[in-house]
Design brief:
Helices cover about 40% and strands about 15% of the residues. By secondary structure, it is of the alpha/beta class. Helix 4 (about 150-170) runs parallel beside helix 5 and helix 10 packs antiparallel against helix 11. The radius of gyration is 21 Å and the shape is globular. Bound molecules: ligand PBG. The site of ligand PBG has 12 residues, from helix 6.
Length: about 325
């Protein structure tokens, strides 16, 4: 924030030399406007069926899909290094996928079992689960397809049941990432009706139809189901930012506790606008493509991957993000010591 100085002389050279306060590391640290802390980070984790298995995801270097026994170890690690919450994303067996994604509602599905196991083993770690059908549908869309279109109101009914199944399993934060109209209000009503008064809703409010979700779709196995289809009839047009403010305002009015802007780095202007326009916590998602680009360039020796990762994290904080989803959360927390 620029403030008028009472002493005009102070604003001019040589009385003012901004390099003075930059000349030593201790001083730079002292005057830093933003700081990154492990508390700022949310760690998304991919899960799969089986025992003691990690499956590396080729398009997400350093990230593996893990079975629930390993998930619990990762959850313990997250808690130990100061991360406050993890987000779970399942790879569902093709045999369990259907046009309606009914597996999403099953109390003993992979995500619900994962939630129970993590909350059992590490009760103080927040657990976030995505509310959307894409890991569960044969067509790879986030909702129910009718006559070639994702049907808004039918989808919401199912999403309410999915959110309730997750809340019943002990999920702390349900995170609708589907971009249907009106889903936050309906999910809030469903949670209240069943007396889940303390289940938080993190609304993916400004979620853009981005080309940067590819590695994620590989990780949850929805890429081949989706094929050449896109999600532009429900996710936002990257050309718009006023519309993002309308989405956020609606989700807050419908009962969202926090809102998300996604992707992150390419949408810092949206994060900044959101944090200056609204008083709810705004989270950002450094999405799979954004993470993968850093890893790929670093693997080629073109950039210092750790340094770029930290620079992007502080950029999120500067823009006003309260917490950041990043696949590098554990690596960053370790870097921060
Ligand atoms: C699914 C979902 C997606 C992501 C999070 N939840 C993909 C999509 O909308 O197709 C993307 C995250 C990432 O790319 O890291 N609703």
């Amino acid at each position: 924030m620029l403030r008028a100085t009472s002493n005009e002389q102070r604003a001019t050279f040589p009385a003012t030399r901004l390099r003075r306060s930059r000349h030593a590391a201790w001083c730079r640290d002292l005057i830093a406007e933003h700081r990154l802390h492990p508390c700022d980070l949310i760690w998304p984790l991919f899960i799969q069926e089986g025992k003691n298995t990690e499956t590396p995801i080729a398009s997400l270097p350093g990230v593996s899909r893990v079975t629930l026994d390993i998930l619990v170890e990762k959850a313990k690690l997250a808690h130990r290094i100061g991360i406050k919450a993890i987000a779970l994303f399942p790879m569902i067996d093709e045999k369990l996928k259907s046009p309606y994604g009914d597996e999403a509602l099953f109390a003993d599905n992979l995500v619900c079992r994962a939630i129970r196991e993590v909350k059992n083993a590490v009760p103080d770690l927040g657990v976030i689960a995505d509310v959307a059908l894409d890991p569960y549908t044969t067509h790879g869309h986030d909702g129910i397809v009718e006559n070639g279109h994702v049907h808004n109101d039918l989808t919401i009914e199912i999403l309410c049941k999915q959110a309730l199944a997750q809340a019943k399993a002990g999920c702390d934060i349900v995170a609708p990432s589907d971009m249907m109209d009106g889903r936050v209000g309906m999910i809030r009503a469903a949670l209240e009706h069943e007396k889940y008064h303390n289940t938080l809703i993190l609304a993916y409010s400004a979620k853009y139809a981005s080309a940067q979700y590819g590695p994620f779709r590989d990780a949850v196995g929805s890429a081949q189901n989706l094929g050449n289809a896109d999600k532009r009839s429900y996710q936002m047009d990257p050309a718009n930012s006023d519309e993002a403010m309308r989405e956020i305002a609606l989700d807050i009015a419908e009962g969202a506790d926090m809102v998300m802007v996604k992707p992150g780095i390419s949408y810092l202007d949206i994060i900044y606008r959101a944090t200056t326009s609204f008083d709810v916590p705004v989270f950002a998602y450094q999405v799979s493509g954004e993470y993968a680009m850093i890893k790929a360039a670093a693997a080629n020796g073109w950039i210092d991957g750790d340094a770029v990762m930290l620079e992007q994290m502080i950029a999120f904080k500067r823009a006003g993000a309260r917490a950041i989803f990043t696949y590098a959360a554990a690596d960053i927390a370790k870097l921060l010591g």
